[in-house]
Structure formats: C-alpha cells, structure tokens
UniProtKB/TrEMBL annotation:
Gene3D superfamilies: 2.30.30.100. It comes from Lipomyces starkeyi NRRL Y-11557. Plays role in pre-mRNA splicing as component of the U4/U6-U5 tri-snRNP complex that is involved in spliceosome assembly, and as component of the precatalytic spliceosome (spliceosome B complex). The heptameric LSM2-8 complex binds specifically to the 3'-terminal U-tract of U6 snRNA. It comes from the Eukaryota. GO terms for molecular function: mRNA binding; U2 snRNA binding. One of its GO terms (biological process) is mRNA splicing, via spliceosome. Residues 1-75 form the Sm domain. This is LSM2-LSM8 complex subunit LSM8.
C-alpha cells in the first residue's frame, strides 16, 4: 500500500522540486507518484506582493517533480490570511547521489 492511499479524496498540499506550492483534492496517483488533483490551486508567494492564487481545476503533477505531499489542516488553513503572506521563493530541491 502506498503512503498516499489514505490521502485519496482529501485536501492535500504538494510542494514540487522547483518550489511551487499546490493544493487540491487528491483524486489519484500511480507508482511513480504522478498525482491527480481536483479543484487544484497554485499559491504563488512572493516577497513584495499579495499571495496570488491560480485556479487550475483538474491538474496532473508529474511524479518526478513532487518533493512533498501532505494533508491540509482545513481549520488552520482557513485562519491564514493568504493575501498578507509574503516570502522568498523556495529554492529547488536536489537529489542526493550516491
């Protein structure tokens, strides 16, 4: 059983290896961690402007770009004033080679 199985049908947050942040309802995934999000949104957080939220609808994220996937705590998320959030862009993640 995949670690993502309990998340199907629930709100998740996904951070990609290039630092992008997505939220949506996890509809499916496969063995390479390709992820299908329903009602997907991308939150674009910058240092100088309000957080921009892009509505994407049904969205597929390639597994090779997924760095993190976790459940959204709806209570906490609803209390955050996203239009006031500012921050530097996340750096890219790096694969550790052996």
């Amino acid at each position: 059983m995949s670690a993502l199985a309990p998340y199907v049908g629930k709100a998740v947050v996904v951070i990609t290896s290039d630092g992008r942040l997505f939220t949506g309802i996890l509809q499916g995934y496969d063995q390479t961690t390709n992820i299908i999000l329903e009602s997907a949104k991308e939150r674009v957080i910058t240092p100088d402007a309000p957080t921009e939220v892009l509505d994407l609808g049904l969205y597929l994220l390639r597994g090779e770009s997924v760095a993190l996937c976790g459940l959204v705590d709806d209570e906490i998320d609803s209390q955050i004033e996203w239009d006031k959030v500012r921050g530097l862009r996340l750096g890219e993640t790096k694969k550790l080679g052996r």
